[in-house]
Specification:
Elements: H1 2-9, H2 18-35, H3 38-60, H4 63-68, H5 85-97, E1 102-105, E2 108-110, H6 113-116, H7 123-133, H8 135-138, H9 141-147, H10 160-165, H11 171-177, H12 179-189, E3 217-222, H13 228-236, E4 243-248, H14 250-253, E5 261-265, E6 279-283, H15 291-301, E7 310-315, H16 325-338, H17 345-354, E8 357-363, H18 371-376, E9 379-385
Parallel strand pairs: 3-4, 3-6, 4-5, 6-7
Antiparallel strand pairs: 1-2, 7-9, 8-9
Helix pairs in contact: 3-5, 3-7, 7-12, 11-12
Length: about 375
C-alpha cells in the first residue's frame, strides 16, 4: 500500500496533458469499480446528490463570495452571512469533508481553488444552480413513468418537467419567467465544455458554400444564441462572400451587436423569413425537442429553402453500441428537462425523412470513428430537400 501511495503522490497534474489526465482518471474509476462492493457503489451513488446540494446551498448563500474575501484562516464568526451560524457551520463542515475547503483546526478553515471557482461571478456557480434544479424533475421520474405506462415522452409540452412542476409551460417558458434560473441557463450554454472537439467548419468544405452576390444570404444560424458560431466562422473565413444572419428569441439577442452579421429575432416554430439562403444552420437545437416538435421546426423551414439550399445540423450522435457514461447522462437530462433525446445516426436519418429531407452526408474529422471519439465530437449532418 505504501508503494501505491508513493506512486500516487508522485503524480504531478501540472506536468500531465489532458489525455494523460483522462487516462489517470479512467484508471482510478476502473480501480474503484473493482474494489467497491455493490453496497458501497449504491451508497456512493445515492449520496452523491447530497454533495452537489451542499455546494448549491453555499452558492445560494453566496458563501464562496464571502470566503474569497478572507485572508488566511477563518471561522464562522468572521463570515458576514445572513444565516444561522449553526447552519453555516454545518455547510462548511460538509464542504471540508469534500475538500472544497480545508479544515485546519476546530471551526477553522482555509479556502481552495475549487472554492474560488464557485463565487457568484463564476460560470461554475451557474452550473450548480442549473444542474441541481433538475433534481426535482429527476426525483419524479418513477412517478411519471408509472403514470404514462413506461413510455418515452413524445411531446415537449407533456414531459417529465411539466409533470414534476404541474405546469403546461415548456422549460424555456419557465426560464423566461424565472431570471435566477434563466441567467444560470444562459451562462451554462456559453461554457466551453459544451463545445468539445473540432468546430464544424474545420472539417466541412466551407469554400463550397457560394452565393451569386455579396448581398445574398449565405448562412442563417437558427437558434444561434448570441452568435458564437458565426463569430468564429467569420474570424476563420474573413473573406467569405454573402450575408451571415443570426436568429434567436428577442430576449436572447437583446443588445447583441455583431459587426458584419445581421441579428434577427425569429421563432423557429414559425415560417422562416430569410428565403433561398445557401445554408440554414442548427447547432444543438434539435436535441432540445422530441421528434414531434423537431419535425415542426424542420417543416417550417422547408418553404424558405431553394433548390440549392443546404440544411446543416451540428449535433452529437450516439453510437449504436458502446455509449459512454457522459452521453447517457446527457440523454437522461434531455428527457427529463425537454422530453427529448440524444439521437443515433439512424434516428437522425429517420427524423430528417419525417420532415421531408434527405441526409446527404455525415461529416466528422478524420480519424473520428470510435464511440469514445463520438462522445467528444459533434457531427455535422448535411441534408437537402427531398
Amino acid at each position: 500500500m505504501s508503494d501505491l501511495q508513493h506512486k500516487l503522490d508522485a503524480v504531478d497534474p501540472d506536468r500531465l496533458d489532458q489525455q494523460q489526465k483522462t487516462q489517470w482518471l479512467q484508471a482510478c474509476d476502473k480501480l474503484r469499480t473493482r474494489l467497491e462492493s455493490p453496497l458501497a457503489t449504491a451508497s456512493r451513488l445515492v449520496f452523491s446528490a447530497h454533495q452537489g446540494m451542499a455546494i448549491r446551498l453555499a452558492v445560494d448563500l453566496r458563501l464562496f463570495d464571502v470566503i474569497s474575501e478572507q485572508d488566511g484562516v477563518f471561522n464562522v464568526e468572521q463570515l458576514q452571512i445572513e444565516a444561522e451560524p449553526l447552519l453555516v457551520k454545518r455547510i462548511l463542515r460538509f464542504l471540508a469533508a469534500m475538500s472544497v475547503i480545508h479544515e485546519v483546526d476546530v471551526d477553522k478553515y482555509t479556502t481552495t481553488p475549487m472554492a474560488a471557482a464557485l463565487v457568484t461571478s463564476s460560470p461554475l456557480s451557474a452550473a450548480m444552480i442549473h444542474g441541481t434544479h433538475f433534481w426535482t424533475v429527476l426525483s419524479k421520474l418513477p412517478e411519471y413513468f408509472h403514470s404514462n405506462g413506461w413510455q418515452s415522452p413524445q411531446n415537449g409540452l407533456e414531459g417529465p418537467f411539466q409533470f414534476a412542476h404541474s405546469t403546461p409551460a415548456h422549460y424555456f417558458e419557465f426560464l423566461n419567467s424565472n431570471p435566477y434560473y434563466g441567467q444560470a441557463f444562459n451562462t451554462v450554454m456559453s461554457m466551453p465544455f459544451r463545445r468539445t472537439g473540432k468546430d464544424w467548419f474545420e472539417f466541412f468544405p466551407v469554400a463550397s458554400l457560394r452565393v451569386k452576390t455579396l448581398s445574398d444570404p449565405l448562412i442563417v444560424d437558427m437558434g444561434g444564441g448570441q452568435g458564437e458560431d458565426l463569430r468564429k466562422l467569420q474570424f476563420h473565413f474573413p473573406d467569405l462572400p454573402g450575408q451571415l444572419i443570426l436568429q434567436d428569441q428577442p430576449g436572447v439577442i437583446a443588445g447583441v451587436d455583431l459587426p458584419g452579421i445581421e441579428v434577427m429575432a425569429h421563432d423557429f416554430f414559425k415560417e422562416q423569413p430569410v428565403r433561398n439562403a445557401k445554408a440554414y444552420f442548427l447547432r444543438t437545437v434539435l436535441h432540445d425537442w422530441p421528434d414531434m416538435q423537431a419535425v415542426q421546426i424542420l417543416r417550417r423551414l422547408r418553404p424558405a429553402m431553394g433548390a440549392d439550399s443546404l440544411l446543416l445540423i451540428s449535433e452529437s450522435v450516439l453510437p449504436e453500441s458502446g455509449v459512454g457514461l457522459s452521453a447517457v447522462l446527457s440523454d437522461l437530462h434531455m428527457m427529463a428537462s425537454y422530453a427529448s433525446l440524444e439521437r443515433t445516426e439512424r434516428q437522425w436519418r429517420s427524423l430528417l425523412e419525417m420532415a421531408g429531407f434527405a441526409l446527404v452526408n455525415v461529416w466528422l474529422p478524420n480519424g473520428c470513428e470510435s464511440p469514445r471519439d463520438l462522445a467528444d465530437q459533434p457531427a455535422l449532418f448535411e441534408a437537402r430537400l427531398e
